[in-house]
Amino acid sequence: MKLLAGLSVALAAFSAYTTAFDVNCNSNYVSYYGQNSARNQKSLGEYCKDAVEDVIVLAFMNGFPNILLNFANACETTFEGSTLLHCPSMAKDIKYCQSQGKAVILSMGGASGAYGFSGDSDAVAFADTVWNMFFKGSSDKRPFDDAVLDGIDLDIEGGSGAGYPAFINQLRSHYASDPSKQYYIAAAPQCPFPDVYLSSTLNSAWFDMVYVQFYNNYCGLNAYPNWFNFGDWDNWAKTKSINKNVKVYIGAPGSPSAASSGYVDGSTLKTIYDAVRSKYSSLGGIMTWDVSQARTSGLAGSIRAALDAGGTCKNGGGGDPTPTTTTTSTTTTSSTSSVPHSTTSMSTTPTPSEPTTSEPTSTSHTNCPVSGEPCSGSQQGCDGNKFALCSGGKWYLGSCVSGTTCVLNNGQAICDWPNGRSTDTCEISGGSSLQKRLDFSKVSLITQPKLRPKPVIAQSNVPTRVEFVAGDISGEKYSMVVKIQANKKAFSGKWSIGFTLPDGQTVDSTSRGEVSVDSNTVTIKSNPSSEEAENMAAIFKITGTFKDSYDLPDTNSAVFRSF
Length: 563
Hints:
Elements: H1 5-14, E1 28-33, E2 55-64, E3 68-69, H2 88-99, E4 103-110, E5 114-115, H3 120-134, E6 151-156, H4 164-176, E7 184-187, H5 199-204, E8 209-213, H6 230-239, E9 247-253, H7 266-279, E10 283-289, H8 291-297, H9 299-310, E11 327-332, E12 341-346, E13 363-364, E14 380-383, E15 386-391, E16 394-399, E17 405-409, E18 412-416, E19 426-428, E20 456-457, E21 459-460, E22 464-474, E23 477-486, E24 491-492, E25 495-500, E26 509-510, E27 514-518, E28 521-525, E29 534-535, E30 537-545, E31 559-562
Parallel strand pairs: 1-2, 1-10, 2-4, 2-5, 4-6, 6-7, 7-8, 8-9, 9-10, 21-31
Antiparallel strand pairs: 2-3, 11-12, 13-19, 14-15, 14-19, 15-16, 17-18, 20-22, 22-23, 23-30, 24-29, 25-28, 25-31, 26-30, 27-28
Helix pairs in contact: 1-9, 3-4, 7-9
């Protein structure tokens, strides 16, 4: 399929220069390669002939510690007498891409596959294997021959979290043994915070980049601004991440068909990117799934233009002009870099990511804060479902999203679900500093715990994991992504899944197979003629209606059958 004419012109312009990838920029573009999502995937080298992407993520190593690689049509040859892929053409392309200033990293995990560690010793041993097979170590079987990758990405969407911090620590010890180049550790969590699979690892191990998947979830790009939750991830980067200079990326589908929900066009994505860049200093750029989709749709060219127009290679977010900030320069050295680098930080206090129900540090007042009335310093306050910020000596009031209420947490006004707290109190804080944004109503601290995915091993005749993920929620209509993942053995193209709907919900359509509803029991049957003979995963979207409040179905009710 030919590229759009406008995109072709843009790509020609981008190809005129080559710059080395700089992890400290907020204008980087990352895209995944290897799964032929658009069914027209070109060779890796073709995508490196211009300056559109800064980082290419090879997807996937979808089996470990017993290594299984899958790059679709990009590599289909194996070592003699082995099932391990041997990819000399990709090896040549990797070195070419690196010569063009791009970083090439390998993604471990994915939506389907058999992966995970039994414990730390298992993970440490596998880190040695990865170093020997893909980096500067030595092995009798190296899938990319003498090509040396630039890093590892963890796209963990199944299994337990055991061993991943130990794996990262051991791999970074190998990184430190080679000061000739910079190596990276990345992750690709889903946007609901905290991530179901990577939460503890993200809090206890070093990461250079985090590519948050703002799609296939209720907090996706299509839910901007009300449910879009980059603020939670920025707060994590500043308060919980081991690497306080970690860069967080806006993960986007490369086209409408690249994800069940979350796609936005180039103009909308630029609007979101510009807004995030102005507020959050952790921003690293934009990520897309995947390069074949983004190039075919033309989104890749739009993203590159947006990044070049607005991004910088300095600390990203400028924050609101009103708050007083202090800019300091520090020099740090990490074991992934042989050269110290300067960073600029803003001395502001981030929004807490998980509000508590403990009494906040505040002073109660008989009178509620009134918009335009005098206030002092950097006070913040609450008036029922309105938040109040002192700016320029006067109160600024804004409304929380419907259903949430304002809560003072450690002196900061946030919008949260009531969770049994009073919704009609007035409070004013003492002297906590202002945040970098005034749009507290748009922060996903409104995220309901009941909407967080809860994957389970389904009742099934084939070992299978089932997960329900909230999609769009608008009025009394919803969409939900159903994820079915085989644990080890593939299931056939003839399958069915049944589960119980919460009271008051209906299912109107499914993007895969046929749906029937009996009372509150839903059954979805595949259309074998539209399925592969063997499948490691089935991911699709259903839509329907609900009454009052929306809940995800109980995954424990899921029953899967492969025939």
